[in-house]
Write a structure and sequence with these properties.
The complex is a heterodimer of chains A (806) and B (284). Chain A is an alpha+beta fold. Chain A folds into three domains: 172 residues, Aldehyde oxidase/xanthine dehydrogenase, molybdopterin binding domain (Aldehyde Oxidoreductase, domain 4, 2-Layer Sandwich); 186 residues, Aldehyde Oxidoreductase, domain 3, CATH 3.90.1170.50; 332 residues, Aldehyde Oxidoreductase, domain 4 (2-Layer Sandwich), CATH 3.30.365. Chain A is built from 20 helices and 35 strands. Chain A is globular, with a radius of gyration of 28 Å. By secondary structure, chain B is α+β, with helices and mostly antiparallel strands. Chain B contains twelve helices and 14 strands. In chain B, strands 4-5-10-6-7 form a five-stranded antiparallel beta sheet. A four-stranded antiparallel beta sheet of chain B has the order 11-12-13-14. Chain B has a three-stranded parallel beta sheet with strand order 1-3-2, covered by helices on one side. In chain B, helix 10 packs antiparallel against helix 11. Chain B is globular and about 55 Å long. Classes of the chains: A alpha+beta (806), B alpha+beta (284). The interface between A and B is medium-sized, with 31 and 24 residues.
C-alpha cells in the first residue's frame, strides 16, 4: 500500500455506519421550513372538506337539514350517513374487529363525532357552511365511566349490537361489554396469593390522554376518473395497510390505489387508525371528480381522533416475608370509548398488556381485561409505546412500590431481589412471552450508583425530619422505574392487523457509480429513518451512508410493509435492511471473485471492499464492484446489483432500562420541580447514539407531560374539558426537565444486527419514574396510591388529605 | 378555527378609530395585540362584523415618565414594557409582571391596552393597574375621559368602556417602596391559578402604605382595600401579614376550573398573597 491509501480507520469513518452519531439528514429541510406535509399539498381544482360534529356525547339525531348550507355559494356537497349508506360506507370496520360510524347513523355516541361532511371551494366557505347545517338532537343519558357502564341498568350505547352475544374477541356479558381477554392461570394465581406471607392490593388508574402530534391528521384524496386511479396523500403511519383497507372497502383494485405518506409531523400512534375523514374525502373526490383535502384543527384532533390509555387496573401481588414475589393478579376495566377502534395486533385485543409481569421473575400470574363501551371518542392507540406496554409498565412499577410499602422495604432493593437474572435469558414469562436477552442487575446497579441512591435516601430522611420540625415546606421524592418493553411486532405466526402479517421489508438498488437507494415498508414521522437505515446499510454494504437515499411512504414505489409504530421499524424493517444488504454483499462477492480471478471463498469482507485473503493489496471496493455489475459481462451472473428482503422476525425484542427521577414538591402549592432525571436505556446494538439520545429526550418529555398534567378530561355529560392546548398540557422548553442519558448494551440474539428499538422506551419507563417520585415524596406520610396526572391541585390534594396543611 | 367574515379597518389616528366605533356600534371591536380577540373570533365565540386594527396609530405607542408620573400608550407591547430601561428603573413591578405574561412571542404582540381593556379576569395587567392605582384614559366621541382602574371592571369581560370608546392610555404615579408580583400557573403561556401584586412603602420599620391586588381569583381583578389597611401602620410582622392575607382572601371568590377546585385555589391564593407581601416588604 502506498501513502495515499486511506487507512482502515479512515475508510470506516467515511461510511458513517453503525454506532456513529451522524447528523439527521432530514433536519436540513425541516429546520428551513422546507418539509412537505399533507397540508402543503395543493392540487388544481382542490376542494376542502370538514365536519359538522356533535356537541353532545350521546343523543339521537331527529333530523339533519342541509338546505341552508347547500344554498351558500361555493358549497359543493354535504354528505350525511344517508348518502354513504348506498355505498355501504356509512359504517366502516375498525382495526379491532368492531365497526364504527363514518357519519352519525341515527345517533351520536361521543362529543365531536362526525355528523356530516361539508365539501366547499375553500376552508372559509366550509366553516360558514358548517354553521348552516341544522341538526336536531334528542339528548340521551351519558356514560363516561367504564365501571358505571357495566351496571345492569346502564343505558345501551351500541344499539346496533343488540342481540349480539359475542364480538370479535369472544363472548359479551353486558350490552356495553366488548370482550374479556384472559391470559395466565387464574386458579393457580389465586391459590398462591391466598397462601402468601404478604399480599399487596391496589387499583391503579392510568388516565385517558392523547398523543397530540404537532401535525394533526389529514389527507388529500384525488380520484382520477379518466384512468381510474385513486391517489391518497395522508398522515398515515401505515400507508400500505391503508391502501389494502381502502381497496377492500371501496372495491377499487389495489393497483389503482396509490397511498402516499409525505413528511409527517409526529404520529405517536395517533395516525395508525382509519378515520372518517379519510373515507369521506375519498367518497367526496369520487362524487365530485375533484381532489378533496381534509385537515383537522387542534380541537378536532384532541376531541375525535385516537386517545390513549384509560385503563383501570386492579392488582394483587404476593411475596414471601423476605420479599420474593410469588404471584401477580391483574384485572383491567378498559375504557374503549364508543367504538372499539384500538390499534392492536388482531389476536391481542389488550395489546401486549401481558408484559405486566415486568422485569421480574414472577412464577405465576393472571391477566384479565374487560373492554367496555362509553360515550367517549374511540381509539386506544399506543401513544409512543408498543401496544399497551406503558399501561403494563406503569401497573407493575406501581405494584412493586405498593408491595415495598407493605413489606416496609426499600423499593430499589425489592426490585433487585426479584429481577430476572442474566443467566435466565431467554426467559419464559408466566404470561407467555420469551424475553430475548437482558442484564437487569448490571443496569440497575449502574443507575443507582449514577444518582447516588444511598445519598438521596439519606437526604430524603433529613428532609422529612426538617419538614416535621417546620423548617421547610418542600418534600423530596425519588422515583424509581425499571421497565422491560416488548417491541418489534411482530412474528407473522401471531402478529397481524386485520389478517395482514406484521413483517416488514427493504429493497436496495445500488447505482453503477457506487451510490444507492433503499426503500422500506415503514414511514418516518420524525424518527430519522433516512439517517439510521442508511447507517445500517452503510455497515452492511460498505457504501457511505451519505451516498444512500432512503425512501418510504409511497405505496407505488416502496415494498409492502406494515408501517411505523410500536418501536417496530428498527426491529423489523431495520432487520430487513440488514438482510437485503447481506444479499447485495453475497452477489458482490461473486463479482469481486471474478474480477480478482480468485474463488469466492478466498475473499473476505473488509469495511467497504472484498480483499483476497492474505493479499490485502488485492481488493475490489463496493464502488468498483457496482460499476462492474452493470457494465461488465460476468459469466453466470445477472447484470445489476439489487436486493429485496421481507423480514418476518422470529421473536419480539425486549429493550429495557432504568429511570430515576428526583423531584422537589412544594406541599402548599402543589408545584413540583424535577431536580434530576436519569435515564439508562439498553436498546441492544446502538445505531446512532445522538438519535437515541434525542428519542429519549422526546419520549421522556411526553412521559413527563402524561404523569404531571396531560389528560383528556370529560365532565359528567361527556364534554371534553381539555380540548385546547391551553388545558391539554404540552410542556414548553421551560417546563421540560433536563435529562441525563446513559446506556448498557445487550444485543438481541435474534436480530441481524442485535438492535432492539428505543423510540418508545422513555415514555414507557418515564411515566412510572415521574409518578413514583410523587408517591415517594409522600410515602413517609402514609401515601399508598394517588392517580395521575399529578398536576398542582392533585398534588395539593394528596398533601391536604394527609393532613400536611396543618 | 376560522372566523366569520368581517370588515377590516385600519385607522391612522384615535379620532378615526372612534369614528368607526361610533358608526358601527356594538358590531365593531378594536384589535390591539389580538391574542384574546382573534382566538375568540376563530372559535366563533366573538362575532365581530367590523374589526378596527389600532396598529397604525403611533400616538398609542408612547411611554412618558415625567414629574413623578408614568403614562403608557395602549398599544405599547409587553415586550416594550420589558425592554424600556427607564420604565424598568421607575416601575420595576411592571417589568416583573410583564415577564410573567405568556411567552416572548406573545409579548411581542400583546399590548398593555388590550390586556387591560378586554376585561378578562385572567389577564395580569388589570390587577397590576389596580395595585398601582392607575387612571385609564378612554377616548370617545366627546374626547377623552378618565376612569380609575379600580372602578373600571364590572364583571367578566364587562367594563366601563362604552361601545364607542377605546382605552388609549394608562397613567399612574411612580410607585415608592417595595414591590412583588407572584403568580402561580401550570405552564408558560397559562393564565394564573392565582396571582398577586403588592406595593408596600415602609418608613422606619412601619408600613406607610400598602396596595394589594389579585388576578384570576374572581370575575374581575380584586384590589383589597382591607388587606392594605391591615398592613398600614404596622411593623409588618408575621401576624400582620397573616391578617392582611386573611383580609385579601375575604375579598375573592374563585371558581373551579381545570386548574383545580375552589379549596385549592383559596389555599394557593393565601400562599401567593403571603409571598408577594413578604417579598414586597423585603424590597421596601
Amino acid at each position: 500500500m502506498n501513502d495515499q491509501t486511506p487507512t482502515r480507520v479512515e475508510r470506516s469513518a467515511k461510511l458513517k455506519g453503525l454506532g456513529v452519531s451522524r447528523k439527521r439528514v432530514e433536519d436540513v429541510r425541516f429546520t428551513q421550513g422546507k418539509g412537505n406535509y399533507v397540508d402543503d399539498i395543493k392540487m388544481p381544482g382542490m376542494l376542502f372538506g370538514d365536519f359538522v360534529r356533535s356537541p353532545y356525547a350521546h343523543a339521537r339525531i331527529k333530523s339533519i337539514n342541509i338546505d341552508a348550507a347547500m344554498a351558500l355559494p361555493g358549497v359543493i356537497a354535504v354528505l350525511t350517513a344517508k348518502d354513504l349508506e348506498p355505498l355501504g360506507l356509512h359504517w366502516m370496520p375498525t382495526l379491532a374487529g368492531d365497526k364504527q360510524m363514518v357519519l352519525a347513523d341515527g345517533k351520536v355516541l361521543f362529543q365531536g363525532q362526525e355528523v356530516a361532511f361539508v365539501v366547499a371551494e375553500n376552508r372559509y366557505i366550509n366553516a360558514d357552511a358548517i354553521d348552516l347545517v341544522e341538526v336536531e338532537y334528542e339528548e340521551l343519558p351519558v356514560l363516561t365511566d367504564a365501571k358505571v357502564a357495566m351496571a345492569p341498568d346502564a343505558p345501551v350505547l351500541r344499539e346496533d349490537l343488540a342481540g349480539q352475544e359475542s364480538g370479535a374477541h369472544g363472548k359479551r356479558k353486558h350490552h356495553n361489554h366488548i370482550f374479556l381477554w384472559e391470559i395466565g392461570d387464574e386458579a393457580a394465581t389465586d391459590e398462591v396469593i391466598a397462601n402468601a406471607d404478604v399480599v399487596a392490593e391496589e387499583t391503579v388508574y392510568y388516565h385517558r390522554t392523547h398523543p397530540c402530534p404537532l401535525e394533526t391528521c389529514g389527507c388529500v384524496a384525488s380520484m382520477d376518473k379518466v384512468n381510474g386511479k385513486l391517489t391518497l396523500f395522508g398522515t398515515f403511519q401505515a400507508p400500505h395497510v391503508v391502501r389494502t383497507v381502502a381497496s377492500l372497502l371501496s372495491g377499487i383494485e389495489e393497483h389503482n390505489i396509490r397511498v402516499v405518506s409525505p413528511d409527517i409531523g409526529g404520529g405517536f400512534g395517533n395516525k395508525v387508525g382509519v378515520y372518517p375523514g379519510y373515507v369521506c374525502s375519498i367518497v367526496a373526490s369520487i362524487v365530485t371528480g375533484r381532489p378533496v383535502k381534509w385537515v383537522e384543527d387542534r380541537m378536532d384532533n384532541l376531541m375525535a381522533t385516537a386517545f390513549a390509555r384509560d385503563y383501570w387496573m386492579k392488582g394483587r401481588i404476593s411475596a414471601t416475608k423476605d420479599g420474593r414475589i410469588t404471584g401477580l393478579h391483574c384485572h383491567v376495566t378498559a375504557d374503549h370509548g364508543a367504538f372499539d377502534a384500538c390499534a392492536d395486533p388482531t389476536k391481542f385485543p389488550a395489546g401486549f398488556m401481558s408484559i405486566c409481569t415486568g422485569s421480574y421473575d414472577i412464577p405465576v400470574a393472571y391477566l384479565g381485561v374487560d373492554g367496555v363501551y362509553t360515550n367517549k371518542a374511540p381509539g386506544g392507540v399506543s401513544y409512543r409505546c408498543s401496544f399497551r406496554v406503558t399501561e403494563a409498565a406503569y401497573f407493575i412499577e406501581r405494584m412493586i412500590e405498593v408491595l415495598a410499602i407493605k413489606l416496609n422495604m426499600d423499593a430499589a432493593e425489592l426490585r433487585r431481589i426479584n429481577f430476572i437474572r442474566k443467566e435466565q435469558f431467554p426467559y419464559d414469562s408466566a404470561l407467555g412471552w420469551e424475553y430475548d436477552s437482558g442484564d437487569y442487575h448490571t443496569a440497575w446497579e449502574k443507575a443507582l450508583k449514577a444518582v447516588d441512591y444511598d445519598g438521596l435516601r439519606k437526604e430524603q430522611a433529613e428532609r422529612v425530619a426538617a419538614f416535621k420540625r417546620g423548617e421547610t415546606r418542600k418534600l423530596l421524592g425519588v422515583g424509581l422505574s425499571f421497565f422491560t418493553e416488548i417491541v418489534g411486532a411482530g412474528p407473522v405466526k401471531n402478529c397481524d392487523i386485520l389478517g395482514m402479517g406484521m413483517f416488514d421489508s427493504c429493497e436496495i438498488r445500488i447505482h453503477p457509480t457506487g451510490s444507492a437507494i433503499a426503500r422500506l415498508g415503514t414511514i418516518s414521522q420524525g424518527q430519522g429513518h433516512a439517517t439510521t437505515f442508511a447507517q445500517i446499510l452503510a455497515s452492511e454494504i460498505g457504501i457511505s451512508a451519505d451516498s444512500i437515499t432512503i425512501e418510504e411512504g409511497d405505496t407505488d414505489t416502496a415494498p409492502y410493509g406494515l408501517g411505523t409504530y410500536g418501536s417496530r421499524s428498527t426491529p423489523v424493517a431495520g432487520a430487513a435492511a440488514a438482510m437485503a444488504g447481506r444479499k447485495i454483499r453475497a452477489k458482490a462477492q461473486m463479482i469481486a471473485a471474478y474480477l480478482l480471478e480468485v474463488h469466492d471463498g478466498d475473499l473476505e469482507w473488509d469495511i467497504d471492499r472484498f480483499v483476497v485473503k492474505g493479499a490485502p493489496e488485492q481488493f475490489k471496493t463496493m464502488t468498483e464492484i457496482a460499476y462492474a455489475s452493470y457494465h461488465q459481462e460476468i459469466p453466470g451472473v445477472e447484470p445489476g446489483l439489487e436486493a429485496v428482503s421481507y423480514y418476518d422476525p422470529p421473536n419480539m425484542t425486549y429493550p429495557f432500562g432504568a429511570y430515576i427521577c428526583v423531584m422537589e414538591i412544594d406541599v402548599d402549592t402543589g408545584v413540583h420541580e424535577i431536580r434530576h432525571f436519569y435515564a439508562l436505556d439498553d436498546c441492544g446494538t446502538r445505531i446512532n447514539p445522538m438519535i437515541i439520545e434525542g428519542q429519549v429526550h422526546g419520549g421522556a418529555t411526553e412521559a413527563y407531560a402524561i404523569a404531571m398534567g396531560q389528560e383528556l378530561a370529560y365532565d359528567e355529560i361527556g364534554n371534553v374539558k381539555t380540548g385546547t392546548l391551553m388545558d391539554f398540557f404540552l410542556p414548553t422548553s421551560w417546563e421540560t426537565p433536563t435529562y441525563t442519558t446513559d446506556f448498557t448494551e445487550t444485543p438481541s440474539p435474534h436480530h441481524p444486527i442485535g438492535a432492539k428499538g428505543v423510540g418508545e422506551s422513555p415514555n414507557v419507563g418515564g411515566v412510572p419514574a415521574f409518578s413514583n417520585a410523587v408517591h415517594d415524596a409522600f410515602r413517609p406520610f402514609g401515601l399508598k396510591q394517588s392517580h395521575m396526572p399529578h398536576d398542582q391541585w392533585r398534588i395539593w390534594t394528596i398533601a391536604n388529605d394527609l393532613g400536611l396543611h396543618g | 378555527m376560522i372566523p366569520s367574515a368581517f370588515e377590516y379597518h385600519r385607522p391612522a389616528d384615535v379620532k378615526s378609530a372612534v369614528g368607526i366605533l361610533q358608526a358601527q356600534g356594538d358590531e365593531a371591536r378594536v384589535l390591539a395585540g389580538g391574542h384574546s380577540l382573534i382566538p375568540m373570533m376563530k372559535l366563533r365565540m366573538a362575532a365581530v362584523t367590523h374589526l378596527v386594527d389600532l396598529q397604525d396609530i403611533a400616538e398609542l405607542k408612547a411611554v412618558s415618565i415625567a414629574e413623578g408620573k408614568v403614562t403608557i400608550g395602549a398599544m405599547v407591547t409587553q415586550h416594550m414594557l420589558i425592554d424600556n430601561a427607564r420604565l424598568a428603573a421607575s416601575v420595576p413591578l411592571l417589568r416583573e409582571a410583564a415577564l410573567q405574561i405568556a411567552d416572548p412571542q406573545v409579548r411581542y404582540c400583546g399590548t398593555i391596552g388590550g390586556n387591560i381593556a378586554n376585561g378578562d379576569p385572567a389577564n395580569d395587567m388589570p390587577g397590576l393597574m389596580q395595585c398601582l392605582d392607575a387612571t385609564l384614559g378612554l377616548a370617545g366621541p366627546n374626547g377623552t375621559r378618565n376612569v380609575k382602574a379600580r372602578d373600571f371592571y364590572e364583571g367578566a369581560y364587562v367594563t366601563a368602556c362604552e361601545d364607542d370608546e377605546l382605552v388609549v392610555s394608562v397613567t399612574f404615579d411612580v410607585p415608592k417602596g417595595g414591590h412583588a408580583y407572584e403568580k402561580q400557573k401550570r405552564k408558560i403561556g397559562d393564565y394564573a391559578t392565582a396571582a398577586c401584586a403588592a406595593l408596600i412603602e415602609m418608613d422606619g420599620g412601619t408600613c406607610r402604605s400598602a396596595s394589594i391586588a389579585m388576578t384570576n381569583l374572581s370575575d374581575t381583578p380584586i384590589w383589597s382595600r382591607s388587606a392594605g389597611a391591615a398592613l398600614t401602620g404596622t411593623r409588618c410582622d408575621t401576624e400582620d401579614i397573616a391578617s392582611a392575607v386573611t383580609a385579601a382572601l375575604a375579598n375573592i371568590n374563585p371558581t373551579e376550573d381545570n386548574r383545580g377546585p375552589v379549596a385549592f385555589k383559596m389555599h394557593v391564593a393565601g400562599i401567593v398573597i403571603k409571598r408577594a407581601i413578604t417579598r414586597a416588604i423585603a424590597s421596601a
